[in-house]
Amino acid sequence: MLDLAIIRERPDVVREALVALNTTAPLDQVLALDEERRRLVTEVEALRARRNTVSKEIGRMKDASAREVKIAEMRNVGDAISRLDERLHVVDEELRGALLQIPNLPHPDVPIGKDESENRVVKEWGQKRAFAFEPVPHWDLGPALGILDLERGVKLSGSRFYVLKGQGARLQRALITWMLDLHILEQGYTEVYPPYVVRADCLVGTGNLPKFGDNLYRDVEDDLWLIPTAEVPVTNLYREEILPPGSLPIYYVAYTACFRREKMAAGRDVRGIKRGHQFDKVEMVKFVEPHTSDEELMKLLDNAEDVCRRLEIPYRVVQMCTGDLSFSATMKYDIEMWAPGCGEWLEVSSCSNFRDFQARRANIRYRPTPGAKPEFVHTLNGSGLALPRVMITVMENYQQRDGSISVPEILRPYMGGIDAIR
Description:
The protein has 422 residues and is an alpha+beta fold. It has twelve helices and 18 strands. It has helices at 4-9, 11-20, 27-60, 64-99, 138-145, 150-157, 167-186, 200-206, 231-235, 293-311, 357-362, 389-397, and strands at residues 120-125, 148-149, 163-164, 190-191, 197-199, 218-219, 224-226, 241-243, 250-259, 278-288, 315-319, 331-339, 344-355, 364-366, 375-376, 378-386, 405-406, 420-421. The strands form five sheets. The protein has an eight-stranded mixed β-sheet with strand order 1-11-12-13-16-10-9-4. A three-stranded antiparallel β-sheet has the order 5-7-6. Strands 8-14-15 form a three-stranded mixed β-sheet. A hairpin with an 8-residue loop joins β14 and β15 (375-376).
């Protein structure tokens, strides 16, 4: 969440940011509740100070009747303190609830724009393959090879589910294992394997709750939530903790399944496996010192791009404008890989710097030096990369005229040495 001091001292800056983000938030409610809270605290402190002073006087009083009058007066003061404390508790809860609905402020370098149409392509890499035949989309290619079963996925679980079979399942597993190895062995990340279900507080910490509750799957009986991304459990590893001096930066990478109640407009992204309620993802998460987070975002982005480069699939990097920035991010870049069968760029990674926004919500702090006052860390995350869209781009870019799929050379050791899926 935002530092309340920023909202209190620079409300105009926050209002301008909300306009740039093309969103609304209960800013006026926060300001009113904050003012009321400070007034209540002042009143309570004044009454407690008065009670302490009079209590000492009562102890020195000789006149019994006068003493009883003072005691009765202090009972009334105590009742007033109790009423104010009750109201203060209510205001604290309302204030926190309102603060949780205010998005992060965009980084000064984020371009102003109304929506995704004004995002900026900042980089393109690789040449699109020139096919000697008409490339086939994955929703035809996969079933023809017997590696993708869309109909049985729907039969099992409903729309937006699918089944990978045989070498299709193996290809996805190969991609996941290879990506993990790349991030761990060459880029310095430590692997973690977190739970796929979390408490609600974890989703509040990363900014998924309360705003995006409708997109999440929940076990109501135990109040546990299926994770929409590994970012949620991994970021919350240090929830309510103070990291010791010298412990930052921390780089983690995790493979998990992800679960989202995708709500799509009719006719948009409805074919194939581009959007699903369950998908696999390799996720990178960083905990860093505040003065390094902008630099760390560029490193994170390059780590994700490296996967695309080594697969030798054309991609581009898109910087999100203010109108398309996520709720929690101060700056975000998407990586999109080219899918020739679909004829479109598919997002396979989002790399974001949250600064201290998530750390404040989850209360993750560190000590810069021994004995120093704790400060909030900065958190970052990025997909490295997300399936199944990487599967789509591999299938469609490496397809052959005979309907087979050539296995990318870098994946062949993970595929038992085979060079093609036929």
